[in-house]
Specification:
The chain is of the alpha/beta class. It has one domain (4-150): 3-Layer(aba) Sandwich (Rossmann fold). It has 5 helices and 5 strands.
């Protein structure tokens, strides 16, 4: 039986920290779906369609990765995609507390397990929100993005 997982987030923009979680998850999954959702509490920098194109460019040579845009509960997407695991990255104690609550709720309402992958210390301070702010002020952000990723080729929201 193949193991399919979902790594969900807004990924606005997709960072080296996100990439690290994806690559580590592929160590124990046969397929990973990167699910791009929208968070109404956040001001988007890139549209979901552009985020999908960006992530596809990062993983263009990896057949075990599929990228989707969704607007449902993540557990509903997991059922629809026959995924058995949710993958989440954790950078701090506050992330852990939040992710544990969500993992417990997801297990209770849908019977799906969550695997928390703790951030590589090199990426623990990276957050998409901080990078969005740097972009807003035209600060170079290449060091925080996957190697070779140049966001200037994509149109901001």
């Amino acid at each position: 039986m193949s193991k399919r997982g979902i790594f969900a987030g807004s990924f606005d923009p997709f960072t080296r920290g996100h990439q690290d979680v994806v690559l580590r998850a592929l160590g124990f999954l046969d397929e990973l779906i990167i699910a791009i959702g929208s968070n109404p509490k956040k001001q988007d920098c890139f549209s979901p369609e552009v985020r999908k194109e960006i992530i596809e460019s990062v993983f263009s040579g990896e057949p075990r990765i599929r990228i989707v845009i969704y607007n449902t509960l993540t557990v509903d997407l997991a059922k629809q995609e026959n995924a058995t695991l949710l993958i989440r990255g954790v950078r701090s104690i506050s992330d852990f507390e939040y992710e544990r609550q969500i993992a417990d709720l997801n297990r209770r309402i849908a019977g799906i397990e969550t695997i928390l992958l703790f951030s590589d210390p090199a990426y623990a301070s990276l957050s998409s929100s901080a990078i969005r702010e740097l972009i807003q002020y035209n600060y170079p952000v290449e060091d925080f993005l996957p190697e070779g990723l140049d966001l200037t080729q994509w149109t901001k929201k």
